[in-house]
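2 proteins. here.
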Amino acid sequence: MLFKIPIKIDDPEEIDWAYFWEKKVEAKDDIKKDWDKEASRFGKYAVCGGYNNELLSKLKLDKEDTVLDLGCGEGNITIPLSKQVKSVTGVDLSENMLELLNKNAQKENINNIKTMKRDLSKITINDVGAHDIVIASRSINRVLNIQELIANLNEIANKYVFITIYGANNWKIEKEFYESIDKEYPEFPTHRYLFNALLDMGISPNVENLTLTNHREYENLDDFFKRRNWNLNDLTDSEKEEAIEFVKNSLEINENGNLFNKEDIVDWVLIWWKVKD
């Protein structure tokens, strides 16, 4: 059941943003995604819109830094990071992702990357030790207890924590369809939930929109629904048919034969802060 935030609130200071974050995540039926199955194809769309270069340009790094990369995947951020710092520890729950990362590092003769299979939502300093920098790139969207995770990251990091999270301009196609059938789309919590949850913890974060250039492209309709995390189980059979037809009519075919919608822009927000001494 989708949790709806009350329209009228007497005292905004009493809003428990971590609680509302959790309810948003719980409303998603597919929060336990099988990333082992996604591993072989994830790298194909992980770099969409120049995401990697844009994020890397924002990080405050020193050549002697040790970095913890949470939800490292097959290494699209981990590997370029390793060329700028002393060492990187890549953490992921997917065995297949870590295997790909190690293979990719070996191909480039990189030997300062260590990988660990862990659930990042439960990561502690006892698991990974202290690091100068902690990065969670597009990896915390499915975490339920967000403030517990943040407290752990603050303990691990000596200098900075960097997190990228969904901005408000995602899921336009889904939202338009759900509006057409008078339902609310069960989206993941956006950056405003994290921002306010951090303020509640006494952390004053910096917020930057990543300037990305491209819209998403899909090989076919099946690819669209898989990559958009759009679980149709909350729809009736007739609504499912309507949804598929709606998406068909919303997408065009480009010169490469891929499906796209020019307003389907990748929207990621970087939230970061300096850890207090």
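next one coming up
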Amino acid sequence: MKTKACLYIVTALLVLASCLGDKQGFTLSGKFKGLDKGEFICFSDAPEWGTLDTVRIEGGRFSLTHALTDTIVLTLQYPNFMQTQVIAIPGREVSISGDANNMLAIEVGRDEQNKLLNSFRKSVAALKQGERADVAEQFIKDNPGSWAAIAVFQKYFLQAENPDYAKMAKLLDEMVKNAPKRKALLDMKAQMRPLLDARVGKSLPKFKATTLKGEVISNKNFKGKPLLITFWSTMASEFSFPLTSQRQLMQRLSKKVAQLNICLDVDTTACRRILRRDTIGGYNVCDLRSFDSPLVNAFGLARLPANILVDSIGKIRERDIPNDSLEATLRKYGIE
């Protein structure tokens, strides 16, 4: 009987293992000095993390366990919007310790990758934002095969307010060269491809779209004339403000610069109303697919609202021009 019982247990464990696949439990735990109760959120760009978790702190302590199949970069965001990055490794526990009154000095884990990331955090803690980016670039060059380099790349380059896509491409290529089979890097490179292909200095990617008037347009429609592409939406007033506030300027320059306005609404009712109300000219597109639009992917949209200035030979000259700088920027390229 004992032999049969053992066989049943072994069989059950094998079935359970096959159901779990390669997933292992990753545990995040820790204690914050000076904080008895509270909470923070925990998320990752990695699809397998899947959820945005709220981690509760009781008696200064917290713990969270999540199944993982591969190492990922995890972000902890506190109520004051400060963030801490963690290298989450399947089957491991990472412990965090520190003072709630000095979140920059938090210590994460004792494994090699998190210790490396701790060291980087300490090296930039007293620096200004611009100086941090320079140190981040050098850190990635010095540690291109590390997960810590991926974390630093995400924070200081992918999330930068004004990304330097040429520099990002070089750093990403160096990381891939040193870890050619790392899925996180290959996924990142695939996601960034549209941004890199549509960066300043590149030719405008080929596209085709149907306007609200039913016209089929493509790159051919804009040969020999500068083009201003504007991404906008009625989802929030700040998403439509650049389009509506610049209408008089663009009407005045309509013979000198073509317009392609791409609305990311999921229906055309509000979009058409604003276009009529403010007499917005040019070609107007709303394909009802919002951020799933092929145009979002083709033009490497990173934020909303956004614009792209293309010269008369199809080269991208400027991206994400601030609203109050648009007239001066157009003038710089002889459009006045």
